[in-house]
Amino acid sequence: MKKFLATLVLSACALSGLAHAGTVDDAVKRGTLRVGMDPTYMPFEMTNKRGEIIGFEVDLLKAMAKAMGVKLELVSTSYDGIIPALLTDKFDMIGSGMTLTQERNLRINFTSPFIVVGQTLLIRKDLQGEIKSYKDLNASKYRITSKIGTTGEMVAKKLIAQAQYHGFDNEQEAVMDVVNGKADAFIYDAPYNVVAVNKAGAGKLVYLPEPFTYEPLAFGLKKGDYDSINWINNWLLQIQKDGTYDRIHAKWFENTNWLKDME
């Protein structure tokens, strides 16, 4: 009986240890927080002309790593394979402008959102007046595009299903498809489109700013990592109250000085 009880106690201790292990604990022990991202999403994560990954979400992650007392390691990963990469331990968490959707939430856990965005449109300039909302694009004569694996693609196929769809591996190629007249509209998050219309539009695009979806962006972690989610959510609340969040947000959304650092 004593041996049996001892076994139960050891098993309980082992399970307790497993319950408290997670991304934050592992990062603190390792001294590095490894975050997977696809650095093509202005102004959240992008590569500047010196090859450095910069952006709003990058600065948030730097502040998060500092609060943990660890270094930040960014792991560039294609967006359509980013969840499988997390699940196979290529990095600790996803920080790549990911929308918290119910479909994704079946595979991974999410923190509280750190920002809410919505899908908007970049259309060919000659379609101004003809296309006033996404509903006007829902016809077979139109060709629409977005980035593969994103909610832009999901929304295009769900809400604009009658149009012809062709996706690309990155945002820039998809936008250029519209600039070059091969597609009629690009569907993507508002923060990206508001920059892209001037940076890549070449005077040939019109931005329709009214969002037609509700999309909370959050950090993604493996299932069951509730201790890490608790820590990150408390940290998010803290930076929203102490001015850190507002300072980082203003840097990337209230001025365009960072554009000078881009290619």
From TrEMBL:
One of its GO terms (cellular component) is cell envelope. Keywords: Signal. Residues 1-21 form the signal peptide. It comes from the Bacteria. Residues 32-255 form the Solute-binding protein family 3/N-terminal domain. SMART domains: PBPb (SM00062), PBPe (SM00079). It holds the Pfam family SBP_bac_3. GO terms for molecular function: ligand-gated monoatomic ion channel activity. It is found in: Cell envelope. CDD domains: PBP2_Dsm1740. PANTHER family: GLUTAMINE-BINDING PERIPLASMIC PROTEIN (PTHR35936:SF38), MEMBRANE-BOUND LYTIC MUREIN TRANSGLYCOSYLASE F (PTHR35936). This is Transporter substrate-binding domain-containing protein. It comes from Aquipseudomonas ullengensis.
